[in-house]
Design brief:
The complex is a heterodimer of chains A (494) and B (94). Among the domains of chain A are: 16-109, OB fold (Dihydrolipoamide Acetyltransferase, E2P), CATH 2.40.50.140; 131-272, Rossmann fold, CATH 3.40.50.261; 279-303; 432-479, no CATH class. Chain A contains 15 helices and 13 strands. Chain A has helices at residues 7-10, 16-30, 111-127, 155-167, 184-197, 228-236, 253-257, 265-272, 276-310, 315-335, 338-376, 381-426, 428-433, 477-482, 487-491, and strands at residues 34-45, 51-56, 61-66, 83-93, 98-108, 145-150, 171-176, 209-214, 241-245, 260-261, 438-441, 459-464, 467-472. Chain B has one domain: Helix Hairpins (Orthogonal Bundle). A two-stranded antiparallel sheet of chain B has the order 1-2. In chain B, a hairpin with a 5-residue loop joins strand 1 and strand 2 (85-89). In chain B, helix 2 packs antiparallel against helix 3. Chain B is elongated. The chains are: A alpha/beta (494), B alpha+beta (94). At the A-B interface, helix 4, strand 7 and helix 9 of A face helix 2, helix 3, strand 1 and strand 2 of B. Strand 7 (171-176) of chain A pairs parallel with strand 1 of chain B.
Amino acid sequence: MPDPVPFAANIREYTVSELAVALKRTVEDAYGWVRVRGEISGLKRASSGHLYFALKDEKAVLDAVCWRNSLPQPQPVLEDGLEVVCTGRLTTYPQRSRYQLVVERIEPAGAGALMALLEERRRRLAAEGLFAAERKRPLPFLPEVVGVVTSPTGAVIRDILHRIADRFPRRVVLWPVLVQGEGAAEQIAAAIRGFSRLPPGGPIPRPDVLIVARGGGSLEDLWAFNEEIVVRAAAECTIPLISAVGHETDTTLIDYAADRRAPTPTAAAEMAVPVRRELAERVARLAERLDHAIRRHLRELSRHLQGLARGLPDPASEIRLREQRLDDLSERLALRSPARLVGERRERLARLALRLGELMRDRLGREDLRLHAVGARLRPAPLVHLLAAHARALGREQQRLATAAARLVGTRRLALDALSRQLESLSHKSVLERGYAVVRRASDGQLVPRLAALDGETRLEIEWYDGRLSVLRGDPPHAARRRPSSPSSQTSLF
Amino acid sequence: MAGQSAADGGPANAEAERPFETMSFEEALAELEAIVQKLERGQLDLEASIAAYERGTRLRRHCEEKLRQAQLRVEKLALDAAGEMKLEPFAPTE
């Protein structure tokens, strides 16, 4: 036993490197081949292809590395949370004072481990609503274009194309992808999203329905279709999507996100397209029923019409009746034509005029006879008698009138004499008696009271009390003064 | 078939005036079926039944035309030299 007192002298002194190397040897010798069970954590796939991760349990963590060439082919499903059993050797990493397990073999810790992982993921995505029933869209009845996401090689695409060709040949667009192994999930997700993003009417036809398919295989083979990236792409796809991964007994998470799940790729093709022949038969049957229905309908209508027609009176006889009535009316109308009416009236008028003449002649004859009869009875005696009476009355009246007149004349004459005497006393005659004379113009008897009234008259009449004398005028006094040498006119003046 | 669900004739009235050229096969088939049922019930007057028949005949032709367009054409998406997506003919290896 070493003595504890000369402590420093007795203990071997290592350099860090010496110790690290010693430790490395010790660890690698002691744990050169171990099996460790733990849950994968912090899985990282480096670009070199090496895998770095940690194995952990409730209490401890062990770093692990798996060199690319140590990975089994096909690659097992390795994911965080997956419980695995790793076989390998422990080694240290002196530069970092760390130890790690170099994994030579890695396998899931029994089938249950992977299933547990899957179930946990399914529950998580379901809680997000990715698998909700209301997200499911109905498949188109008759797609024009079918999009297929699968491997370009193998039985799957062949089966799908065969079945589509059998049922209803369509246009098929294949988006080739890896369906397992590294990058498969990314390619599948990209293909689903790529189809979903295609615009309608673009150079690449947008499918009316998608089939995402893979043939049968182990759980690990189908694992890409459990990857979250693929499940999300399927759930978000805007084109109705049919999943057909593996065999009928295999269920992957994409089946939950798809609108329909087909047990096999062939079944997916059957879901995607209807059977053309059946449709053609259905259309033909409908066409037949359509023709039959319209014919029957028309027949029924026709029978109905005939039935009604029997109830109608015979049109020909109706027409004959009406023709007869028309004839009758025409005839009656002709009787009432204006020309005819005028003719009739003229005739009647002529007859009446004739009759009127006859009547007048009759009447005149009769009146004549009557007049003669009356005239014969006419006698002058009453008139003579009446005349004599009136003559006597007239004589008496004349007598009375003469007597009255004579009396009236006598009284008037007495009055007149008196007035005459009175008038005489007032007339110029009495003046004349006193020696005056009246001069008148002989031509018209007008008085000439003054010389101016003579007015060129040459013959004058002079009246005295006891007679008249016509005289011829000599020269008037004015003229005598102008022509004093005219003795003849002077002498003739008086 | 899925078409059975559309055979109740529900949409037929609403789509009576729809130009059939734009109708899908399924829609045309559903309306044709509705028209046939209506005609078979025989409750239409003459004019309506003839109009229904004529439309039914056109729908039938439309359906048959859709059924006639049955050609398998398989293409594969690929990237061209410029990295653009393009279509190329595809035949699966046997």
